[in-house]
Write a structure and sequence with these properties.
The complex is a heterodimer of chains A (239) and B (204).
Chain A lengths: L15 H15 L8 H17 L38 E5 L5 E3 L1 H6 L3 E8 L5 E10 H8 L7 E6 L5 E5 H4 L4 E7 L2 E2 L9 E4 L11 E7 L6 H4 L9
Parallel strand pairs in A: 1-10
Antiparallel strand pairs in A: 1-2, 3-4, 4-7, 5-6, 5-10, 7-8, 7-9
Chain B lengths: L1 H22 L30 H29 L2 H4 L3 H15 L14 H25 L5 H6 L3 H28 L1 H9 L7
Helix pairs in contact in B: 1-2, 4-5, 5-7
Classes of the chains: A alpha+beta (239), B mainly alpha (204).
């Protein structure tokens, strides 16, 4: 029997003084702002992740917004981690792999032949701002069906040509009806500023989870972290 | 006890909240900042922030937010089950006159304090206000945390950006309450002992 499970004979004296000292020691040693995914902060992230997963409903949709709510062109922030704007490499095609029956390369035309989904919804950034645009593309769930993704693939990994920026998603969020591989924004083909030729877009996660400049989508049995997630940002990041 | 748990938790939540605000010190959606907010683009002062950077502050905020909400919930439960709500909450018909007289006394417009029990009308008003602030803080915080999964709550608060403004206004109001609260305790040192021990037992 593991030692920890053996009840202690010594009565546990929890005085107010020891509780306060313990709490103070806990917060200073286990709450490291530089590493918020470790120690007590990290343990609470995992608790919150379970709560967020329980709160998530597959059929709950973000409200679609009227054109008047759209953020004025130019005010929708651009973002990439490379020093200059990543431009689509010659002969680009999306590599789809992992636990799938038909791994391979999908061209933009291949993706555009699959059912098209379009919506105008609010974007929520981890920094606290919101913005509104319309996006069109193909659902990740439709791509998964097209390539025959295995049900054991509980996670979806997205990789990019933006200096290796990547992220990984839980299957329910990735397969949500409003999670798409977007090739267009505001009725136009996706511009390099917003992730051309293909990016992930979704109603159910914060912006940093929506990988732009996509090169690879992999259906995997385990999560594989992410660019910001490795630097201390929360992995689940649902909204 | 619940009261003192609030002190470190509120400090953590306020400090980490301000560090989160520093990542985008504007109110209103992109391209349409709120005109009424006087501090657009001004980050909160560094001494008031906890968490060093956005991810650190979010770590603190979401690790401890649940405990503050839980503590508030336990207190609400205590109020309801013990019957203390009758003595502590502000009822306009019963307490307005006393609150006004007490205020007049503090402002030196009145020489004698009005008759009072354990809590006067002004105290009841302040404590009930703090309770409502706490409830608003939790609700607006949840709306910001899950604006899609708790979409109905976000809509109730006027949408995501409105909930963000409410969340910050609640903090500003809490600061005002705390200043008033501490000044009052300093003016009435004897009450401090009662805050520590839990206070006098009800007479009845």
């Amino acid at each position: 029997m593991p030692r920890l499970l053996v009840p202690s004979r010594r009565p546990l004296l929890l005085t107010r003084r020891s509780a306060l000292l313990g709490a103070a020691a806990l917060t200073t040693s286990a709450c490291d702002s530089a590493r918020p995914r470790e120690g007590f902060l990290g343990a609470m992230e995992r608790v919150n992740q379970r709560l967020q997963g329980a709160l998530f409903a597959e059929d709950r949709l973000a409200p679609e917004l009227p054109p008047e709510e759209a953020t004025p062109p130019g005010d929708f922030p651009q973002y990439f981690v490379s020093e200059s704007m990543p431009l689509v490499p010659q002969g680009w095609a999306l590599k789809v792999g992992g636990l799938v029956e038909r791994p391979g390369m999908l061209s933009l035309e291949d993706l555009q032949r699959l059912p098209r989904t379009e919506y105008r919804i609010r974007h929520h950034c981890v920094e606290g701002w919101s913005a509104v645009a319309s996006w069109h593309g193909v659902r990740v769930s439709d791509v998964a069906r097209y390539v025959g993704a295995d049900p054991r693939a509980g996670y979806v990994e997205l990789r990019s040509f933006d200096s290796g920026y990547w992220s990984s998603w839980d299957r329910p969020s990735a397969f949500h009806a409003q999670t798409i591989l977007a090739y267009g924004m505001n009725g136009q083909p996706l511009s390099p500023a917003h992730g051309a030729p293909l990016r992930l877009y979704s109603a159910v996660k914060l912006g940093y989870k929506m990988v732009k400049y996509l090169t690879e989508v992999n259906f995997l049995p385990e999560p594989t972290g992410g660019y910001w997630e490795e630097r201390g940002y929360e992995w689940y990041a649902g909204v | 006890m619940a009261h003192w748990v609030n002190v470190p938790l509120l400090v953590i939540m306020a400090g980490s909240g301000l560090q989160i605000l520093a990542a985008y010190p504007m109110l209103g959606t992109q391209g349409r900042p709120y005109g009424w907010y006087p501090f657009q683009g001004t980050p909160p002062p560094e001494w008031a922030r906890i968490g060093d950077w956005l991810a650190g502050a979010r770590g603190w905020h979401f690790a401890f937010g649940g405990f503050l909400a839980l503590n508030g919930f336990v207190y609400l439960l205590y109020l309801a089950l013990s019957g203390e709500w009758r003595r502590r909450l502000f009822f306009p018909r019963r307490d307005t006159r006393n609150a006004v007289s007490t205020l007049a006394f503090y402002l030196r417009l009145r020489k004698q304090p009005p008759d009072q029990g354990l809590y006067n009308g002004l105290q009841r008003l302040a404590y009930t206000g703090a309770l409502i602030l706490g409830i608003l803080a939790v609700l607006s915080g949840l709306a910001l945390y899950k604006p899609v999964q708790l979409g109905a709550l976000a809509t109730l608060l006027g949408g995501y950006d409105s909930a963000r403004a409410i969340h910050l206004l609640v903090l500003a109001s809490f600061v005002l309450f705390t200043v008033g609260h501490v000044v009052m305790v300093l003016l009435h040192p004897r009450s401090f002992g009662e805050m520590v021990t839990g206070g006098r037992k009800p007479d009845a």
